C-alpha cells in the first residue's frame, strides 16, 4: 500500500517536473495561427480588406471577426490556402473589396508633375517612396507592393499603376497545350 | 589508383543518331568581323553587367564595356573596334524570346585591339597565386562555355580541398561539334588552361572525359598532355547524356552528386574544354573572352561548319558565312535537338552560351507530334539518367502540385529530354518540368518579396509608434519644465497661475499665449497619435470608390442634381468608411481622418460629375 502510494507520488512528481519543464522550455510565443495566416496573405498592406494592413486582418481571421474572402490581392489562390489552413469552406472573393489583379503592378510617379507634397510618402505602408518636402518623389520599384494607397492622397494625380513587365529572368515556362491538342 | 583507371556507368540514357560528321568536314574557321555587334549585358548566370560606355564612344577590341554587378557576375568586352551606337533592349537568344538590355557596336572594320591589355600577360602562371589567377579569369569575363554560362572564377575559388578537376569533353548531344573540333585543333591551349586551373584550385590531378566517337580529339589531347602526369584523358562510351556533368562524374568516378548539390560537395570541379582554353588565353595573352567556337549546322545550311565567332555576331551573319540557307529552315534552334530551344529568328546575337546554331531542314528533326494521354508504360522512368520518376513528376506538374513535384526531386532533373524522346504518347514532358521549376521560382520570389514587405511595414509601424511616443515625452517634459520655471520664478503666485491658466486668464497676456500654444500643441499631438495615414488613405480610397459607384448607378453624370446626390452619398459613405477605418486602426474617433475622407469623396464626386473629367 505504502509502496504503491510512494510509487505513484514519485511518478506524479517526475511527470509534473517534465511537464513543467516542457511548458517553460517549449513555450510558444504569440499566436502561431496569426503568424500562419499572415504568411499566406500577400503583404501588400493595401487595406482593401478594411483592416489597416495584413497582420490586423490575419488577427481578425484568427479571432473569427473576419471571413477569409476579404483579400483581393491574395485572390482565389489565397482564399483556397486560407480555407485549407483553417479547415473552412472556400468562398468566392468579396466583390465589395475590389477584384483580384491579374497582372502585378507597380506605382510610378510622373516626376515632372510631382510637386513634392510628401502625401504619398505618408500613405505608403512599406516606405517604398523616396522624397522630401518640396523635392521630387520617386517609387522604389523593387519595394512597391502595388497597393495603390498612394493614388488617392496625390493632389496632382501624378502616380500611375504600371504592370510589371516580364524579363528573361522572371519569365515562366508556360504549360504545354493540354493532352489531346496539338503541341 | 584503382578507381582512377576503372570506368563506371550511369543508368538510363539513349543512343542517338549523332549527325556530328556534317559539321566537322572543315577545320574551325575564324568568322570575319560583322558590321554590327550586339552584346547582351546578361550572357551568363547571375546579375547582368553594368554598362560603362556611353553612346557615341569609340571602343577597341578587348575593352571592358560593362562591369560586373554583384558577386555572381562577369564583365563584357568589346569583341571588335567601333562605335557604341545604342544601349537598349534588344531581342536576345533566350527561351522567353523577350528583349533584354544590350550594347550595340557599329564596327569600323579595323579590329583595332587595346594598345595595352587591361592586365599583364604572364608567361609562367606558376608565379601567380590562386587569388590573382581568379581575378584575371573574372576580369576576362569568362563564363562556362558549355551552355549554362556560370561565372568561371567562382568555380576557381572552391573554398575547400578539390580532389579532382574534370574536363567535360563528352559533348554528347547530336549535331554539336564545337568542343570536339576545339579539342582536336587546340589541344595544347586546353591543356595549358587545365594546368592553370589545377594550380588555381590546388587539385592534384585532372581527368578529361571524351566520348569514344571523337578519336581525333582523344589523340590530340593525349599528345598535348603527355608531358604532364597529372592529366589523364579518359575515353567514355558514347551515350546521351554522357556530357551531363552529373553523368560524366558518375562514369569517371562512380560517385553521385548529392541531390540539389554541386560536384564540389564531393570534391570535384567540372569545366568545359572551351572554358579551359579561354582561361589559358586570358592568363597567357591577357585576352578577355570575346569569341567562342560555334557550330553552325543542320540540313538547311549550305556548308555546316564550326566558326570561331566574335560574341555579339548576328546569327544570320554566321549562317551567311556558312553559305547561307539551301532551303528555308523547318526549325531554328540554339543548342542541340535535345536540350536546345527554338529561336524566333536568326537576327539574334551569338552569346557566351551559344554552342550551336541548328537550322534543321523541314522534317529533319522529330516533329512535334500530337500529345496523347499518358498510358503509364514507364518507358520514361527507364530512360531517366537521374533515376527520377518522370511520370509522377508529370502528373504533379500538370496538376499544379509543385510541392509534390519538388518532393520527388524535380530540381535534380537535368532536362536532358530522354523521357520525352522515348514517350510513346509524345508528351512534352520536359516542358512540364520546366514549367513547374519556373513556377516554384516565381513563388519563391513572391514569398521573398512578401517577407520584405512585411518587414518594411512592421519597421514603419514601429517608427510611427516611436515618433508618437517621443512627441508625447517631449510634451510632458516641456510641461514639467514650464511648471518648474513658474514655481521658481514666482512662488507666491504659483497656486494662482496653476488654477487660472487652464481657464485662460485674459488679464495676463503671457499666460494666455502659453495656454493657447499648449492647447494647439496638444491638439496636434493627439491628431498625430490617433491619425494613422494608412487608415486615412484607406478611408480616402473607399470614399473614392463609393463616389464612383454612386455616380455610376445614379443619373447621367452631367446632371447637377444627380451629381449633388452622388456627392452626398459619397460623403455619407466616406464618413462611415472613415470611422470604420479609424476604429480598426485603434482610434476611437478620428475627426481629421473623417474630414479628409469627406473632402476626398467630394473631390471624387466632382470629378465624376464633370463630363470631361477623368472617370
TrEMBL record, chain A:
Enzyme Commission designation: 7.-.-.-
Cofactor stoichiometry and binding remark: Binds 3 [4Fe-4S] clusters.
Electron transport is among the record's keywords: yes
4Fe-4S ferredoxin-type domain residues: 105-134, 135-164
PROSITE patterns per the UniProt record, alphabetical: 4FE4S, 4FE4S_FER_1, 4FE4S_FER_2
Residue ranges constituting the 4Fe-4S domain according to the UniProt record: 29-88
Chain intervals for the UniProt region annotation (Hydrophobic): 1-23
Keywords: 4Fe-4S, Cell inner membrane, Cell membrane, Electron transport, Iron, Iron-sulfur, Membrane, Metal-binding, Repeat, Translocase, Transport
Compartments it resides in: Cell inner membrane
Positions bound to [4Fe-4S] cluster 3: 124, 144, 147, 150
Gene3D superfamilies: 3.30.70.20, Electron transport complex subunit B, putative Fe-S cluster
Residues noted as binding [4Fe-4S] cluster 1 in the record, renumbered to the chain: 46, 49, 54, 71
Similarity comment: family membership: Belongs to the 4Fe4S bacterial-type ferredoxin family. RnfB subfamily.
NCBIfam families referenced in this protein's UniProt entry, alphabetically: PRK05113.1, rnfB
Self-association and partners: The complex is composed of six subunits: RnfA, RnfB, RnfC, RnfD, RnfE and RnfG.
Name recorded for this polypeptide: Ion-translocating oxidoreductase complex subunit B
UniProtKB/TrEMBL annotation, chain B:
Residues of the 4Fe-4S ferredoxin-type domain: 363-394, 404-433
InterPro entries cross-referenced by the UniProt entry: 4Fe4S_Fe-S-bd, 4Fe4S_Fe_S_CS, Ion_transpt_RnfC/RsxC, Nuo51_FMN-bd, Nuo51_FMN-bd_sf, RnfC_N, Soluble_ligand-bd
Cofactor needs: [4Fe-4S] cluster
Topology of the protein relative to the lipid bilayer: Peripheral membrane protein
Residue stretches in coiled coil: none
UniProt entry keywords in alphabetical sequence: 4Fe-4S, Cell inner membrane, Cell membrane, Electron transport, Iron, Iron-sulfur, Membrane, Metal-binding, Repeat, Translocase, Transport
Subcellular location: Cell inner membrane
Cofactor note: Binds 2 [4Fe-4S] clusters per subunit.
Annotated stretches, region: Disordered: 452-495
Compositionally skewed regions (Basic and acidic residues) per UniProt: 452-473
SUPFAM superfamilies linked: alpha-helical ferredoxin, Nqo1 FMN-binding domain-like
Binding site for [4Fe-4S] cluster 1: 374, 377, 380, 423
Enzyme class: translocase
Positions bound to [4Fe-4S] cluster 2: 384, 413, 416, 419
Enzyme nomenclature, EC number: 7.-.-.-
Family to which this protein belongs: Belongs to the 4Fe4S bacterial-type ferredoxin family. RnfC subfamily.
PANTHER family named in the record: ION-TRANSLOCATING OXIDOREDUCTASE COMPLEX SUBUNIT C
The protein's role, per its UniProt record: Part of a membrane-bound complex that couples electron transfer with translocation of ions across the membrane.
Subunit comment: The complex is composed of six subunits: RnfA, RnfB, RnfC, RnfD, RnfE and RnfG.
Protein name per Swiss-Prot or TrEMBL: Ion-translocating oxidoreductase complex subunit C
Lineage: Bacteria, Pseudomonadati, Pseudomonadota, Gammaproteobacteria, Nevskiales
Amino acid at each position: 500500500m505504502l509502496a504503491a502510494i510512494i510509487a505513484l507520488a514519485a511518478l506524479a512528481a517526475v511527470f509534473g517536473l517534465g511537464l513543467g519543464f516542457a511548458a517553460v522550455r517549449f513555450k510558444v510565443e504569440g499566436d502561431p495561427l496569426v503568424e500562419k495566416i499572415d504568411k499566406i496573405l500577400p503583404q501588400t498592406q493595401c487595406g482593401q480588406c478594411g483592416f489597416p494592413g495584413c497582420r490586423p486582418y490575419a488577427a481578425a481571421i484568427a479571432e473569427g471577426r473576419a471571413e477569409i474572402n476579404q483579400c483581393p490581392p491574395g485572390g482565389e489562390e489565397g482564399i483556397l490556402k486560407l480555407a485549407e489552413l483553417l479547415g473552412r469552406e472556400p468562398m468566392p472573393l468579396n466583390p465589395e473589396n475590389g477584384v483580384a489583379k491579374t497582372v502585378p503592378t507597380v506605382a510610378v510617379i510622373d516626376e515632372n508633375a510631382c510637386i513634392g507634397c510628401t502625401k504619398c510618402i505618408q500613405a505608403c505602408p512599406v516606405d517604398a517612396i523616396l522624397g522630401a518636402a518640396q523635392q521630387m518623389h520617386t517609387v522604389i520599384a523593387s519595394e512597391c507592393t502595388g497597393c495603390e494607397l498612394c493614388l488617392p492622397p496625390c493632389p496632382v494625380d501624378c502616380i500611375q499603376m504600371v504592370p510589371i513587365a516580364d524579363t528573361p529572368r522572371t519569365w515562366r515556362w508556360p504549360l504545354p497545350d493540354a493532352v489531346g491538342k496539338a503541341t | 589508383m584503382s578507381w582512377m583507371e576503372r570506368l563506371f556507368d550511369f543508368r538510363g540514357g539513349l543512343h542517338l543518331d549523332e549527325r556530328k560528321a556534317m559539321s566537322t568536314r572543315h577545320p574551325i574557321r575564324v568568322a570575319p568581323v560583322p558590321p554590327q555587334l550586339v552584346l547582351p549585358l546578361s550572357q551568363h548566370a547571375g546579375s547582368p553587367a553594368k554598362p560603362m560606355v556611353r553612346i557615341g564612344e569609340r571602343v577597341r577590341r578587348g575593352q571592358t564595356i560593362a562591369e560586373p554587378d554583384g558577386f555572381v557576375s562577369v564583365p563584357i568586352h568589346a569583341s571588335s573596334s567601333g562605335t557604341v551606337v545604342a544601349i537598349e533592349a534588344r531581342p536576345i537568344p533566350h527561351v522567353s524570346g523577350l528583349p533584354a538590355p544590350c550594347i550595340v557596336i557599329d564596327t569600323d572594320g579595323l579590329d583595332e585591339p587595346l594598345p595595352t591589355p587591361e592586365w599583364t600577360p604572364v608567361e609562367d602562371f606558376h608565379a601567380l597565386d590562386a587569388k590573382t589567377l581568379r581575378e584575371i579569369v573574372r576580369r576576362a569575363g569568362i563564363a562556362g562555355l558549355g551552355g549554362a554560362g556560370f561565372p568561371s572564377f567562382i568555380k576557381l575559388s572552391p573554398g575547400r580541398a578539390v580532389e579532382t578537376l574534370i574536363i567535360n569533353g563528352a559533348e554528347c548531344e547530336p549535331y554539336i561539334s564545337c568542343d570536339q573540333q576545339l579539342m582536336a585543333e587546340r589541344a595544347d591551349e586546353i591543356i595549358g588552361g587545365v594546368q592553370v586551373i589545377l594550380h588555381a584550385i590546388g587539385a592534384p590531378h585532372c581527368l578529361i572525359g571524351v566520348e569514344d566517337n571523337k578519336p581525333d580529339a582523344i589523340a590530340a589531347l593525349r599528345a598535348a598532355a603527355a608531358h604532364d602526369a597529372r592529366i589523364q584523358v579518359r575515353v567514355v562510351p558514347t551515350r546521351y547524356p554522357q556530357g551531363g556533368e552529373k553523368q560524366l562524374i558518375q562514369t569517371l568516378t562512380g560517385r553521385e552528386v548529392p541531390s540539389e548539390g554541386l560536384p564540389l560537395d564531393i570534391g570535384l570541379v567540372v569545366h568545359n574544354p572551351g572554358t579551359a582554353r579561354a582561361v589559358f588565353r586570358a592568363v597567357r595573352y591577357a585576352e578577355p573572352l570575346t569569341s567562342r567556337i560555334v557550330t553552325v549546322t543542320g540540313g538547311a545550311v549550305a556548308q555546316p561548319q564550326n566558326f570561331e565567332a566574335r560574341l555579339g555576331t548576328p546569327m544570320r551573319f554566321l549562317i551567311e558565312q556558312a553559305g547561307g540557307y539551301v532551303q528555308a529552315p523547318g526549325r531554328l534552334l540554339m543548342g542541340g535537338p535535345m536540350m536546345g530551344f527554338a529561336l524566333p529568328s536568326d537576327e539574334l546575337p551569338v552569346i557566351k552560351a551559344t554552342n550551336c546554331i541548328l537550322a534543321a531542314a523541314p522534317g529533319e528533326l522529330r516533329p512535334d507530334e500530337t500529345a496523347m494521354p499518358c498510358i503509364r508504360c514507364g518507358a520514361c522512368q527507364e530512360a531517366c539518367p537521374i533515376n527520377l520518376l518522370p511520370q509522377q513528376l508529370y502528373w504533379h506538374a500538370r496538376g499544379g502540385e509543385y510541392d509534390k513535384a519538388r518532393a520527388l526531386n524535380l530540381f535534380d532533373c537535368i532536362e536532358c529530354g530522354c523521357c520525352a524522346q522515348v514517350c510513346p504518347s509524345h508528351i512534352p514532358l520536359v516542358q512540364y518540368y520546366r514549367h513547374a521549376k519556373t513556377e516554384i521560382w516565381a513563388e519563391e520570389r513572391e514569398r521573398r518579396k512578401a517577407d520584405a514587405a512585411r518587414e518594411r511595414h512592421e519597421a514603419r509601424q514601429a517608427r510611427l509608434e516611436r515618433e508618437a511616443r517621443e512627441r508625447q515625452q517631449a510634451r510632458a517634459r516641456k510641461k514639467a519644465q514650464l511648471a518648474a520655471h513658474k514655481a521658481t520664478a514666482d512662488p507666491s503666485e504659483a497656486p494662482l497661475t496653476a488654477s487660472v491658466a487652464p481657464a485662460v486668464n485674459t488679464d495676463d497676456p503671457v499666460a494666455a499665449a502659453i495656454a493657447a500654444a499648449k492647447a494647439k500643441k496638444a491638439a496636434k499631438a493627439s491628431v498625430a497619435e490617433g491619425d494613422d495615414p494608412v487608415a486615412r488613405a484607406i478611408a480616402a480610397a473607399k470614399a473614392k470608390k463609393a463616389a464612383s459607384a454612386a455616380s455610376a448607378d445614379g443619373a447621367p453624370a452631367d446632371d447637377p442634381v444627380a451629381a449633388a446626390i452622388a456627392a452626398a452619398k459619397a460623403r455619407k459613405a466616406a464618413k462611415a468608411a472613415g470611422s470604420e477605418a479609424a476604429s480598426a486602426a485603434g482610434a476611437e474617433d478620428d475627426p481629421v481622418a473623417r474630414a479628409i475622407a469627406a473632402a476626398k469623396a467630394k473631390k471624387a464626386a466632382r470629378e465624376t460629375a464633370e463630363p470631361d473629367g477623368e472617370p
